[in-house]
Amino acid sequence: MHCIYTHESTFDKQFQALLGRGKMDMRTVTPVVQTIIEEIQTRGDEALGEHIARFDKWQPSAPSHMRIDTNAMKEAYEALEAPLKSALHVAYERIRTYHQKQLPKSWMTYEENGTVLGQKVTAVDRAGLYIPGGKAAYPSSLLMNAIPALVAGVKEIVVCTPAPHNELNHLLLAALHLCGITHAYKVGGASAIAAMAYGTGTIPKVDVITGPGNIFVATAKKMVYGDVNIDMIAGPSEIGILADSTANPRLVAIDLLSQAEHDEMASSILITPDEALAKAVIKEIEAYLPRLSRETIARESIHKRGAFIVTRDMDEAVALMNEIAPEHLEVMTLNPFDLLPKIRHAGAIFMGHHTPEPIGDYIAGPNHTLPTGGTARFYSPLNVENFMKKSSIISMSKAGLDAIGPSCALLANCEGLTAHEASLRERLK
């Protein structure tokens, strides 16, 4: 680990490599995912059982055994120790309260001639949530995906999560109960995405699929998009930190490691005009790494994909961070809100020395399902509107049609659509 400086002649090349951090080579897995999708489409539950045996190392003896028992959810919830149960409820309520503020409203406008225009907002009928497993279990992801769907008013929520060796995380089961989920299945990977997109005998077809996953999940979501809606194509986790001399090097180091421990492909990026801070952070990281339970993962991530950039000033630091468009952005400066108007691209922005990224992962309230790999330039965090759609409402009065109909007929004529024009002219007689 070492600092890189914006004044060096090699900086542009190094920075361009950094901008490519989130690119996933989906071409290598596309043939495999395509086969999985086709098998689910043609053979449904039979194919699902084969995929579970191959990838999760257990064999459902019947399709119904893929379903997670609601009694097991309830038992896991009731067995939670009081402090953990309380923490789960605090997270639930904070996430619900935040997302309730996002609810879009239907509206109508009335013109003087009697014309009515408006918009009707409706929840989708059925949502599919993918909750990752494998290297770690993420009950928090269940809360972050289920609660906005519940707030939106989705009638039926389907959850798929991998269960390696037919084992499920105890806290995930408890979270399923807390969210009132009754349709949950022990299915993971591209198989789960295909099952929710097209339906099988056991798993129903959904209208939208949300939730993060590995490259196979991301590729499957991309391939089924259009047959079903999706939230985003999520890649490896990442954090960017803007810091000045007031930042505590130890806290900056730990916050960078909080993303590095997720995955070897995670990116942790510090940008600061303070060279002394950058060097101190590097020392703190080396000292702290041996204390991590996932040291091997974090060490590979921070050494291969971490970056410590020293800029000429804070304006240059902010400009570079906007180009990176990080999933998580911490602003650890004396007056963080002074920088907020200049920040244009970030999934979630954590302001000040007392706002570590993990507070957003679990309990602050905003969603932790965020755009990665620079896609914060055009994607938003998962939100209530991902589970809703809008219908336009148009009601023309006779006076209203008389007022704008001739112009409409002229436009239709210019496009050579004679039936369109006639539809208007007949009413204008």
UniProtKB/TrEMBL annotation:
Reaction catalysed by this chain?
L-histidinol + 2 NAD(+) + H2O = L-histidine + 2 NADH + 3 H(+)
Gene3D superfamilies (UniProt xref): 1.20.5.1300, Nitrogenase molybdenum iron protein domain
| Residues at the active site | E327 (proton acceptor), H328 (proton acceptor)
GO molecular function terms listed in the Swiss-Prot or TrEMBL record: histidinol dehydrogenase activity
Q: Does the keyword Transport apply?
A: no
Q: Which domain of life is it from?
A: Bacteria
User: What SUPFAM superfamilies does UniProt report for this protein, alphabetically?
Assistant: ALDH-like (SSF53720)
Residues of the signal peptide: none
UniProt KW keywords: Amino-acid biosynthesis, Histidine biosynthesis, Metal-binding, NAD, Oxidoreductase, Zinc
Which cofactors does this gene product need?
Zn(2+)
Quote the record's binding site residues for Zn(2+).
Q259, H262, D361, H420
Q: What are its E.C. numbers?
A: 1.1.1.23
- Annotated metabolic or biological route of this protein: Amino-acid biosynthesis; L-histidine biosynthesis; L-histidine from 5-phospho-alpha-D-ribose 1-diphosphate: step 9/9
Sites binding substrate sit at S237, Q259, H262, H328, D361, E415, H420
Query: Any binding details for the cofactor?
Result: Binds 1 zinc ion per subunit.
Similarity section: Belongs to the histidinol dehydrogenase family.
What does the protein in this record do? Catalyzes the sequential NAD-dependent oxidations of L-histidinol to L-histidinaldehyde and then to L-histidine.
Q: Which PANTHER family match?
A: HISTIDINE BIOSYNTHESIS TRIFUNCTIONAL PROTEIN, HISTIDINOL DEHYDROGENASE HDH
Mind telling me what this protein is named?
Answer: Histidinol dehydrogenase
Q: What is the lineage of its organism?
A: Bacteria, Pseudomonadati, Campylobacterota, Epsilonproteobacteria, Campylobacterales
